Amino acid sequence: MDFKQAYDRMRPEVSTLLLKRLNWPVEICDLLYEAWGQQHRWISWENETLSFPVHAPATPQGCPLAPLLLAVWTSAGARATHDDRCTLKVYMDDRTLHTCCWDAVMSQISRWEAWSLSVGLKEGPEKTKVIAKGKKHLDLLAKGPQSWIETDMRMLGAVTVSRKRAYHQVEKDRIDKAHLRAVLFRSVGLPWERALEAYKLFVLSVLNYGWLAQPPTQATADKFFSLFNQDGVSVGPTWSHNFPFFTANEDDPNGRSPKLPGTQNGWGHLGGCELSAGGPDSAESPRSVDSEGPFTRGFPDPTSIEEQKLAYCRSLEHQLEEGNKSLQQQNIERKKQLHEAAEQQKQALLLHMEQQVKMQEMALDEQTNHALMGLKKAALDQRAALEQQAASLTLEYQQRKMQEEFAATQAEMQRQYVDSATKLHSEVQQNQYESKSKMQREWERQLKERHEVLGPASMNMPPPMIPQAPVGTIASVGSMRHVPMPVRTVVPSSPSYSSCSVPVQTRPPQVASFRYA
């Protein structure tokens, strides 16, 4: 993750307040606020400059305290967005985190965006990159935006390794830069000690940087070792375009004795070749043509020059051969790098295609899950409706069954009541008939007795009235009521009849009535 225009958005009043909270001297904080809060900048664009300056309260990027203040700001953000599931590393405005949980990645990114927005900073979403190692974690990358996903990531010049790969383009550029410097030092012809020091300072410092995730190959190390050896760096004639010129010799105060620049005892360089000028300490120095002449003293004769020219030609041929070998080796290395880059691109393309296939599979799985959920929901709805309909029909059946049972029970009770009433009515009629027969026999007996006592005149007396039970329709069980029957009095026709001097009241049988709710 990275900020956009971090220094321009760091407000001076907030920065000085943070320094005061860190127990910085108030005078220094006020001085910094006056310097940072009163800036005026001239806006320039495509060779056009605004005619008047614009007030720009911000932290100058070139200020020596600017990196310290940026570290204070980012440390505050790190404390505000702390998550135990992540390991966070902050360098300037670059933030790198490591975690095994995708939810922690999304949580950290959202937390940093919220914190940056709250303090006035701005995140660079196009700089947010996410890499994963292992198939398990590669599958999790499909959950995030595709603009975040990368196969390798560059952090402070070092390139990560999530899988076996060839050299990254950053590593290739660094190797090429170191190789160019090594070739340049080889062609200069420095002494061994100085060449070794220069090689360490300018070649190895570039070549050794950034190999954290994986080391360089043995072929790369052998190539650089072959460029640095005593035969190629300092010993023997080397290629040079500088031609010798003469200066006054310190041994000759009159300046008549020539001496090559940067030489001792008459030794100089002609085209990078060591020339012998007949120094006093040289046992093999050739004799000049005119050893007594002041103008040829110390100058090599044509024979020596020819010998040195032949040696120089041999050196040129040797360097040409070495250059051809180096170019051929470089061509082989570049072809190898080209194939490795093509293989890397192929692997990246395969990984990208696998990610696309995974995403499409996840999309299809999601669509299938949605369809299955819809199908299950429809089935559950239909089942619920079916169960509701079955319950309703069952309830209606139970109600109808209860009504049928109630009607059957009511009919049975009514039948039993009718049977009982009919039986009772038959018994009442039978009793009435028997009573009537008894009364008739009693009446005949009384008439017979009267006839015997009173004579034939007593035979004209009317017969006694016998109450009759009304023969009516038997009421149903639901509408039966208790209706009192009328009472009739039977009085004998002759009050002189001793056996019937007391009035006899007869009451017909009463049937109790019941009402069912």
TrEMBL record:
InterPro entries xrefs: RT_dom
Chain spans, region Disordered: 273-302
Any Pfam family matching the protein: RVT_1
Start and end residues of each Reverse transcriptase domain: 1-153
Coiled-coil annotated residue ranges, if any: 313-352, 376-403
TM region(s), chain numbering: none
Keyword Transmembrane helix in record: no
Domain of life from the UniProt record: Eukaryota
Lineage of producing organism: Eukaryota, Sar, Alveolata, Dinophyceae, Suessiales
Name of this chain's protein: Reverse transcriptase domain-containing protein
Keywords: Coiled coil
Organism listed in the record: Cladocopium goreaui
PROSITE patterns, alphabetized: RT_POL (PS50878)
